[in-house]
Specification:
Elements (H helix, E strand, L loop, with lengths): L3 E7 L2 E7 L6 E3 L2 H13 L20 E11 L2 E10 L8 E5 L7 H11 L4 E4 L11 H12 L2 H18 L5 E6 L1 H12 L6 E5 L8 H4 L6 E6 L7 H13 L4 E6 L16 H19 L1
Parallel strand pairs: 6-7, 6-8, 8-9, 9-10, 10-11
Antiparallel strand pairs: 1-2, 2-3, 4-5, 5-7
Helix pairs in contact: 1-3
């Protein structure tokens, strides 16, 4: 995709117009709307339909148990998430905060959560939309915009998830992992717990932080998975992110997959790249095993 910038000055008003090859042009006036609009451009012809991933092992009653749990309370409202754990364990297990894509906590995310849990983790899929999820791109755009406009509440939500795994599940180590919108919030979770989180995994999070001063507090190893054809984040932004981390001597593994676009690891999307997705998944499991076990 090509990204063109047109800059129009008006009285105290700056409008940035973003257009993509084969897509119509839209104008936005703030970063939150801009990010939500980019996600809509990427996904507007898709639907979050369950895929074959749901038929893969582990099944719910096979090697993992699963349940909806309340992992905290915000302003008198219980916050519910999806917890999956191995059926048999003789010790407290490392915990992983799973952060959903812009569609929300749907069946595909629950399936991925079970697959992660089967590797020997307490996997908690959080719900940043607090009970809602999208079945159309228009609804997803609404939900992600509302969420981004209430970032403090999202931070509180993720803090509750960390505390749940640490205090209720007694997880000796905790990581974060997210895709797309959730990839951005996986990094933000790391920034919330810069010396407490034990690892973080970012799949094509469009809001990468590249300022070394902001990244400086991070103490955990970082795995970044990105696509060469993506424009949010673009390969240039990813490289700036990697350069900033390396300048700070951070433990970081950053991969940009050739001929892979945004959301290339989502089997329900039109940009699914099975070869890149499989390789990224293997790298993810190896990374988590290395730093959590």
């Amino acid at each position: 995709m090509r990204l063109f910038f047109g800059l129009v000055l008006g009285t105290f008003l700056l409008v940035v117009a973003i257009s993509f090859k084969s897509f119509p042009t839209y104008a936005t006036s703030n970063p939150t709307q801009d990010y939500a609009q980019y996600l809509w451009e990427v996904h507007h012809q898709e639907r979050p339909e369950p895929t074959g991933i749901l038929t893969q092992l582990p099944a719910k009653d096979d090697v993992v148990t699963e349940e909806m749990v309340s992992y905290g309370n915000l302003g008198g409202k219980p916050i519910n998430g999806y917890l999956a754990s191995p059926t048999k364990s003789d010790r407290p297990l490392p915990g992983i905060i799973i952060i959903h894509e812009w569609w929300g906590l749907n069946d595909n995310i629950k399936a991925m959560t079970r697959q992660i849990a089967a590797q020997g983790y307490n996997a908690l899929a959080v719900d940043l939309y607090e009970g809602e999820f999208a079945d159309t791109p228009e609804k997803a755009r609404e939900l992600v915009t509302n969420a981004q406009n209430n970032s403090d509440r999202l931070k509180q939500n993720l803090t509750l998830a960390y505390q749940y795994l640490e205090q209720r599940q007694k997880s000796p180590k905790i990581a974060s992992l997210g895709w797309c919108f959730g990839g951005s919030w996986s990094l933000k979770t790391a920034l919330l717990f810069p010396d407490q989180l034990d690892a973080t995994v970012i799949y094509y999070g469009g809001e990468l932080e590249t300022n070394p001063e902001v990244l400086k507090p991070l103490q955990m190893p970082i795995l970044g998975i990105f696509g060469e054809l993506d424009q949010r984040p673009s390969p240039e932004t990813v490289k700036s992110f990697e350069t900033a981390l390396k300048s700070l001597n951070k433990q970081a593994e950053i991969y940009i997959y050739s001929n892979a676009d945004h959301a290339f690891a989502n089997p329900s999307g039109q940009r699914y790249n099975p070869e890149a997705a499989m390789d990224a998944w293997e790298k993810t499991l190896q990374f988590l095993s290395k730093y959590l076990n």
